Amino acid sequence: MSTPPLDFFKSQTGKILDKTPSAAGNWLAGKLIEIEVGQIRVQYTVRPEMCNPVKILHGGVASLMLDDVIGMANFVAGSEYLMTSINLSVDFLSSAQIGEELEVSAKLIRSGANLNHWEAVISKKSGKIVAKASSNMIKTHLKLKDLGF
C-alpha cells in the first residue's frame, strides 16, 4: 500500500533526515536506513550537543530519538488521521559516547482503530542495547490531508 507519507519517506532512504515535518527530528540529523509500513530503522551519530555534562548521550536526546522514529513510522502506518504519543516508556541500559553510531529501530506491535502500540530500540554497532522504549499513539480528530500531508 503506497501513500504520500510513505512515498516521501521512502524517497529519503539513505539520506540525512533534515526536511521532515519534525523540527526536533531534523536537528537529530539521522540517516534513514529503512522504512516500511510497521517498521523503520534510522542511524544517528552522537554529537557533543547531544550529550550530558559527562559527555555521554543525554537521556532526553535518546528519548527524542526513540519518540521521533516511532512518530515517523506511525506517520506512514496508514491512518488518515494525525496520531500523537500518549506515553513513552524508556529504559536506559547503557551509555553512548560522542562519535558513536547508533541505530534506532521501531516496530508496530499492535494497530487498532484508535491506538497503535510501538516498541523501539537504540543499539550500537556491536549490538549492545543503549535504550529501549514502548509507546502508544492515539488517533486525533485532525485529518492528515487537512494539515497538508
Description:
There is one protein chain. Helix content is 21%, strand content 41%. By secondary structure, it is an alpha+beta fold. It has a single domain, classed as Hotdog Thioesterase (Thiol Ester Dehydrase, Chain A, Roll), CATH 3.10.129.10. It has a six-stranded antiparallel β-sheet. A hairpin with a 4-residue loop joins strand 5 and strand 6. The two termini are 16 Å apart.
Quick structural summary:
This protein has helices at 4-11, 23-28, 59-75, and strands spanning 31-36, 39-45, 81-92, 101-111, 115-124, 129-143. With 149 residues, it is α+β, with helices and mostly antiparallel strands.
Give keywords.
fatty acyl-CoA hydrolase activity; 149 residues; single chain; six-stranded antiparallel β-sheet; HotDog_dom_sf; 6 strands; alpha+beta; 3 helices; PAAI_dom; Thiol Ester Dehydrase, Chain A
The global form is: globular
Mean pLDDT: 95
Structural class computed from helices and strand pairing: alpha+beta
The portion of residues forming beta strands comes to 35-45%
Write the H/E string, N to C: HHEEHEEEE
The tally of beta strands, per DSSP, is 6
Examine the coordinates and then state which fold CATH places here, giving the name of the CATH topology: Thiol Ester Dehydrase, Chain A
Element layout with pairings:
Layout (H helix, E strand, L loop, with lengths): L3 H8 L11 H6 L2 E6 L2 E7 L13 H17 L5 E12 L8 E11 L3 E10 L4 E15 L6
Antiparallel strand pairs: 1-2, 2-4, 3-6, 4-5, 5-6
